[in-house]
Every structure is written in structure tokens, then in C-alpha cells.
Amino acid sequence: MPDCLPFYGWRYNPEKVKIEEVVAPPYDVVGEEEKAFYQKKSPYNIFHLELPETYQKAKHLLEEWIRSQILVKEPKPCLYFYELSFMREQKTLSRKGWILLVKLHHFEEGIVLPHEKVFPKVTDDRFELLKTTGFQFSQIFGLYEDPDLLTISYSPKNLLYEVTLDQQTHHLYQVSEVDIIKEVTDYLKHQKIYIADGHHRYTTALRYKEYMENKLGTTPPRDYHYIAMYVCPIEEPNLLMLPTHRIYRLPNPEDLIQALKNWAEKVYTTEPINFSQNFFKIKERDFGICFKNKVMIFRIKQEVYERFQQKDPVLSKLTLYNFLSLMEQAFQIKEESLKKQNQVEFISEVREVFNHVKDQEIGVIFPELSPLILKEVALQGKRMPHKSTFFYPKILTGLVLNEVRGKPLDFKL
């Protein structure tokens, strides 16, 4: 099971910067316009390091910020308690978790488990940045089992930052009490970690570990044997695993509706303004097809769904898997082919699908699913289809940085 530790985090100095100007969303959910927006906010915004013009420029800026105390190191190892408040359907919700170090393990060991495929080309850029700077600028998002939510039942007092971004409020607390650190890390020693977000960063860290071991060896334990993660219980009620919806550009979208008749039945038609997730009654089989002015809820026929179940009893619990299987069989269309031709757009918000779908396009919307399905997929060694999930809300980049330049982890609590 994972070995988890506190660490000497690096943080922005609140006496030198305004924290709301230097943090940002995860790098992999922003486009060029958003990247430029955040970089213009402050010369010290984290995107100058996370998404630099060149790797060497990131290294130069990092060293300059350390020299000028823009970034400061914790005086002693600690954990960070992270509380995130947000609005959902007119309700204020709160999700809690921890930032700490998790020992790196190859997926085959069954300790840290993925649910997505990894694309090697994506990791090359992150590896070069990590190798050049020796710093991890953002945390991987991991999940663990804690049915009674014991590990997040604390009320920490040492508030470091409170920052509101995109109508979400992030509270970061420093926790250096030895008894709490031991309680949390001891509990996690008996749990598996399921990666929610950050598969490419995790595999990059594994590659970096091997690179550093070739330089400095496998012993003693050093900082590059670990990676900073944000972890929260998979049973956390306000952990939202949203689907990723699609917009497909097709020459004759209506042909798709005709082809559906042998595979699925239409159960409801409504206008976009009236759409609700409550229309999805059988989540494994229900999906929505939308044009500019209407949304049609379809249900995969029972006999078709049973064939999908026979093919894969685990993945057939995912609506997206079933829909993509249906696409291949009913329309002879593979989503991968549409991606290569730039004929598919991935969107996390249903309302954005309604706003963006145009003539010659068709939107496909999916029901929300429980994060527990992710655990089942991961334990079976399966991989969900590309762009299956969108964990919401995202954690911020830049609240805590982790140094991985080869220092021994020989501190005592």
C-alpha cells in the first residue's frame, strides 16, 4: 500500500504577491487564450512556470523567484488540508482533501491505479519541464476509500490562503501537528490510490524517477521517489465525477437518428431550456442527442445492452462506452477517426453543448455517474474511453510546489 509523507512545500510569499493573481486552473484544461489571461495577471503567475515559453526560461524564473523570496520553503514538513467550496444547482457544497507525498509505484504493482490510457507524446513535454526545473508545480488528483470520512473530519486552524476563482473558494491550511500527520498517513498506508486526474503527470514522474535513479541511485529514499498528490475519499459526497459530452461534425446528422432505430428507442423529447439530468432513468443505457432546438433522450435497447455486457461486464456500466460501441456498430464510425479529422469537440458542461451545437453538428450528452465506477474499472485493470470523466471542481495550480531535485527524505517528525 502507498507510503505517504508530509513534505517541505514551497509556497508563494503572501507578503510579496496577491495569491489570487498567481494561481491558475490545471494546465490541461485551459486553451491559449486562458493561458495568456493568467500570465498577464501577474509576472509571477504559476503559468509562467507550468506553461513556459521555454524550459530554460521556466528554470531561470524559478531560481529568480526563490532568490527574491517570491517563493518560500516551509520551515518544517507538513501536510496541507484543502477545502473547496462551490455552487451546484443553487446549493453551496464543500469538498475536503489532503495534499501530501505519495510514493511512486508502477501501475502493475496494484497500489496506485489508473483508469485512463496514457499517450506518450503528452508526457514528453512534462518530462522535459520536470527534468529542467526539478519542481512539480501541480498536484495529481487521487482518490482513496474512507467510507466514514474519518480522514477529513478535522477542523484545522492554520489558514494559509483563501482564494476565490471562477465562483469557487479555495481554503488551504497548513497541518504540522505530528499526531494528525501520523493518523492520516498511517490510514493511507492501508489504501489503494485511484488516479482521478493527472495520469500523464504520474507517468512522467515515474520516468523522472528512473532518470534520477540513474544519476543518484535507488537509495536512500529521495524526493524523486515520491509525488505530491491531492487526495480525497472516493465516498466524499461532494466529489463530482461529471461526464464529458461531445459535439460531432457530420455531413448528415439526421442519418445518425435514422440509424439509431434498430439499436435504441427514443423515450423523451424536450427543448434545451427544459433539460434535466433527471431525464436519464437508466444511466448505463440512456443518452441525449441534441440539435440546436431540441434534445432527444434515447435508451439503448435491452438486447443490445446485453450484448455490450457480455463483451465487457465492467465497462458496460459506462454510458459512454456503450454509446461508442453503438456508434461503431450502427454507424460504422469510430470516435478516434473523427478526432483525427477535427470533427469532435469535448465539452464538460451540458449548457455549453446547447450553446455551441450548430447546423451539420450533433451534440451527445451523458448522465452523471458515481465515482465508485472508477474504482471498479481500475481494480479490474480496465481503461475507460478517452475523455470519459471530468472531476469537478478542479484543484488550483500554484498553491503548493514540490521540489524533486534529489534531496534525501531523512527528516524525522
Protein described:
With about 425 residues, this protein is α+β, with helices and mostly antiparallel strands. The chain is built from 13 helices and 21 strands. Helix 4 (about 55-65) runs parallel beside helix 5 and helix 5 (about 120-135) packs across helix 7. The model has no long low-confidence stretch (mean pLDDT about 95). Helices cover about 30% and strands about 25% of the residues. The chain has two domains: about 5-240 and about 395-405, Conserved hypothetical protein from pyrococcus furiosus pfu- 392566-001, ParB domain (Alpha-Beta Complex); about 245-370, no CATH class. The strands form five sheets. Strands 1, 4, 5, 6, 8, 9, 10, 11 and 12 form a nine-stranded mixed beta sheet that branches. The longest helix is centred in the middle third of the chain and has 18 residues, at about 200-215. InterPro entries: UCP033563. It comes from Thermodesulfobacterium commune. This is DUF1015 domain-containing protein.
